[in-house]
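User: I'm writing a tutorial on reading structure tokens. Could you give me a worked example: one chain, its sequence, then its tokens, then a sentence or two explaining what the tokens reveal?
Assistant: Sure. Here is the example chain.
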Amino acid sequence: MPMLLIKGSFHLSGRTSPDGDTLPFTPDYVGEWKLVRGCEKPEPAWDGRVSVRLEGVDALETHYDGVYGELARQPRELGDAATNALLKWLGFRDIRRVPDPKKPGLENISAIPETVPGYILTSGTDAYGRCVAFVGRGAPPGPSGYELNVSKELLRETANHHMLTQGLAYPMFYSGLPRELREELAVAALQAKAAPGRGVWRRDANGETVDVTLRGAKVIGMTSITDEAVILPKLFRRLKEYLSLGGTTLDSFPAYLGGAMDRFRILAPNPSDELVGLHHVVRVVNGGTVLMTHASEDLLFIEK
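And here are its predicted structure tokens:
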């Protein structure tokens, strides 16, 4: 699939807060942001940087605010591990975190060196104006400002593929991603899940994966999802927003999911027509245990 290649660099100045699937990128020629497709054009900061969201992956949240309330994060160990893995793959070292004095719960990250060269391959932006892209390190495979066909071989050289092979991100697919690339990323994720398992797929003392998205997470309050259960970040975000409304039970959570209007199709095991609302694939059982009925690689979300 042809994607726009932009050459530039990734910066960590101690004033940014990247995570395992989003980080700032500055093109060598800032004007190339105008070439990015999408209804919401990237709006660069004063230094030309724009937040880039990794295509096809969803890492644990480290500072999610959402619509309501204060910042919240998923279990620290794996959330920080995902951020560290992404930054180290790009070439950063000596990663340090300092609490942001202006925003409780946010940590600013610095590293050595402050800047590493790299490139992105993008087909557009998301609804928030973030550039959604495959992320590469070092010298680009073609001229900046031109489209390049992204093959499975080139995909395997990206941070996106690396994060899934390490088990430090979940596969999360949107309809703009071509089938052959989506399937390649799914294979990487499935290999990471295989015994002994990596990252969120590693085994606990009982031989079960640390991730409990399909098995079920007992939710009795916010700390259940911020400090205890490791679940798909999209499910975490919906639960965080619901709990921030002040609900003390999950009785109304399915109705809340219906109103959130997530649009998607089930790919496997039985393909479906377009569905609206995650209540089609999320269940609340035994009064307070939340689980998903399909793995994330079996879902295809539709851009808003």
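What the tokens reveal: The chain has two domains: 2-193, 212-301. The longest strand covers residues 107-125.
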